[in-house]
Design brief:
With about 325 residues, the protein is α+β, with helices and mostly antiparallel strands. It is about 25% helix and about 30% strand. The protein has two domains: about 50-145, Helix Hairpins; about 155-315, G protein-activated inward rectifier potassium channel 1 (Immunoglobulin-like, Sandwich), CATH 2.60.40.1400. It has helices at about 50-55, 55-80, 95-105, 120-145, 240-245, 310-315; strands at about 85, 115, 155, 160-165, 165-175, 180-195, 200-210, 215-220, 220-230, 250-260, 265-270, 275-280, 280, 285-290, 295, 305.
Length: about 325
């Protein structure tokens, strides 16, 4: 019996209406949390540079060391293919050939073992050229990974819809985990929702959310994005059931200049309808220390509490 191909992507049913349940984030939060892509002819070699640049450090180091050992093993096998091709190497010794390959690859050249035949010199020349290319690529990848600017922006695990200045408002709290500041930070919020057009065609639509304040000169500690839900808001009149029915997903992004690196950094996150809480508000995280200094308690950054004002407005 022929075994099924496990690598085959699941079928995409374009004729099905929204299910009203969580189907994954637009901005993935884990390796398994992503939108399924079907119909693309891709392989490991399709975008190898991008994969090596974006994979985790442990995976990158294991991949690099594995490739290094494999290349040296291949050239060691080529040296062993002709007995006596390496001076002072034990007859048919794969280990001696392997360590000679390592010396050649790294251009060390201790001098104890040297090519003894024309065949060995040809292989030696080929390996020297391959070694120069691999070292150059690996050096570039390491530099690109280390020098790539990143923003350590902490987003709350949930967004809240609560009362603010007498109106309903969508709020999202974010904080800067670094001591350095993000200068001229710009925050954007948008919603992705499932709707039908007048012609009855199902579509996923992006709609921007106007913020009470979308820019800050200095993003040093914490910033709360606030969207007033009035008659002009895409969220106006939506109930908790509507959020699930339309598969509402909130997308947030922060862009700014990191003062320590003097480079532009950005961060983004998305929230499904299950992660948008109604009639809740964030707990206060600002305070003072025992010696009178101002402080922020990041251990309570994600905590929320019932909003009595929202409950009274709902009643």
């Amino acid at each position: 019996m022929k075994r099924p191909d496990r690598r085959k992507a699941p079928s995409i049913h374009t004729d099905r209406p929204p299910t009203g349940r969580k189907t994954g984030h637009i901005v993935p939060r884990s390796k398994t949390d992503h939108v399924v892509r079907a119909g693309l002819e891709t392989s490991t070699w399709t975008d190898l540079y991008h994969q090596l640049l974006t994979m985790g450090w442990w995976r990158f180091m294991l991949t690099s060391s594995g490739a290094y050992l494999l290349i040296n093993a291949v050239f060691a096998a080529l040296y062993v293919a002709q007995p006596g091709s390496i001076t002072n190497a034990a007859h048919g010794s794969f280990l001696d050939a392997f360590f000679f390959s390592v010396q050649t690859f790294a251009t060390i050249g201790y001098g104890a073992m040297v090519p003894a035949t024309l065949y060995a010199n040809v292989v030696f020349t080929l390996e020297s050229f391959v070694g120069l290319i691999i070292v150059a690529i690996t050096t570039g990848l390491m530099f690109a990974r280390i020098s790539r600017p990143t923003a350590r922006v902490k987003f709350a695990k949930v967004a809240v819809i609560t009362q603010y200045e007498g109106n309903r408002a969508l709020m999202l709290r974010m904080g800067n985990e670094r001591r350095s500041q993000i200068v001229e930070a710009v925050v954007r919020l948008a919603v992705l929702r499932s709707q039908y057009t007048k012609e009855g065609r199902f579509m996923r639509r992006f709609q921007d959310l106007r913020l009470e304040r979308s820019q800050t000169p200095v993003f040093a500690l914490s910033f709360t994005a606030i969207h007033i839900i009035d008659e002009t808001s895409p969220l106006f009149g939506l109930t908790e059931a509507d959020l699930r029915r339309e598969e509402i997903e909130l997308l947030a992004s922060v862009t700014g200049l990191e003062e320590g690196l003097s480079q532009t950094v950005h961060a983004r996150v998305s929230f499904t309808e299950e992660e948008i809480l109604m009639h809740r508000r964030y707990v206060d995280i600002f305070g003072v220390t025992d010696d009178g200094r101002r402080g922020i308690d990041f251990s309570r950054f994600d905590d929320t509490e019932p909003d009595p004002h929202a409950e009274q407005a709902a009643a």
